[in-house]
Amino acid sequence: MDYYGEKIGSLIEELASLPGIGIKSAQRLAFHIVNMPKEKAHALAAAITDARDNVHYCRECYTLTDRDICPICANDKRNHRQIMVVENVRDLAAYEKTGEYEGVYHVLHGAISPMLGIGPEDIKLKELMQRLQSEVDEVIIATNSGLEGETTAMYISRLIKPTGIKVTRIASGIPVGGDLENTDEVTLKRALDARTEI
Ligand code: ZN
Questions:
Q1: What count of Cα atoms within 13 Å lies in the side-chain half-sphere of residue 86?
Q2: The pTM is what?
Q3: Could you tell me the distance, in angstroms and rounded to a whole number, from the CA of residue 44 to the centre of ligand 1?
Q4: Distance between CA 56 and CA 54 in Å, rounded?
Q5: Which of 53, 51, 73, 77 lies closest to 63, judged by CA?
Q6: Are 29 and 15 in contact (CB under 8 A)?
Q7: How many Cβ atoms are within 10 Å of 140's Cβ, its own excluded?
Q8: What is the pLDDT of residues 108-164, one digit of tens each?
Q9: How far is CA 49 from the centre of its chain?
């Protein structure tokens, strides 16, 4: 397999280890990179290093940010008493793109999956419960509509119920098993508007 020498080989190997990049795409990208103007390639490498070194979880909502508190949590105009719970940062981005949601978020970084051995303690649930100590009117559960998302939604709902805080679940305009991040903005907005108390 080593037609090109070590350096291109290891670049291809690193690229191929990324999600969704097969060996053919990795080769195409590697050749593209080595043919780039040097400054461009250096800027790409620097952006990767910089993001990796400086991006961490927001102290409040656990989304990824390079600040202590992310711009959404730091925004006084958002409704901090309404928290939408999502599985990952991509789902947060999908709801932000609708431009319709004015509350804040909580990113779980996963969903409960007995099959994969992911339990409640493996996602940011404890952190969510801690946030609910402050004044919160509503928790909107916007986990995905597959088995894991539903399991997680039910679990969270049961956990929050005793606190008396209103818990809602986004409507299932989203196809069963479908990911929020691949759902169009109109459907996302409709699912939010038609949320029901659980
Ligand atoms: Zn935040």
A1: 22
A2: 0.76
A3: 26
A4: 6
A5: 73
A6: yes
A7: 21
A8: 999 999 888 999 999 999 999 999 999 999 999 999 888 899 999 999 999 999 999
A9: 21
Which residues have C-beta within 8 Å of that of residue 17, sequence separation ≥ 6? none
What domains, with CATH codes, occur in the chain? 6-54 (1.10.8.420), 75-197 (3.40.1360.10)
Q: Distance between CA atoms of 14 and 45, rounded to whole angstroms?
A: 13
Q: 75 alpha carbon to ligand 1 midpoint, in Å? A: 9
Q: What would you report as the CA-atom Rg of the chain, rounded to the nearest whole angstrom?
A: 20
Distance in angstroms (rounded) separating the CA atoms of residues 160 and 128: 10
- Tokens read off for 175: 């196809």
**How many angstroms separate the alpha carbon of residue 113 from the centre of ligand 1?**
25
Q: What's the token pair of residue 4?
A: 């090109």
For residue 180, the 8-state DSSP code is: G
Q: How far is the CA of 36 from the centre of ligand 1 (A)?
A: 36
Give me the count of residues in the chain.
198
Give the up-direction half-sphere exposure of residue 179: CA atoms within 13 A in the CB hemisphere.
12
Mean pLDDT of the 69-87 span: 96
How far does the centroid of ligand 1 lie from the alpha carbon of residue 46, in Å?
Answer: 25
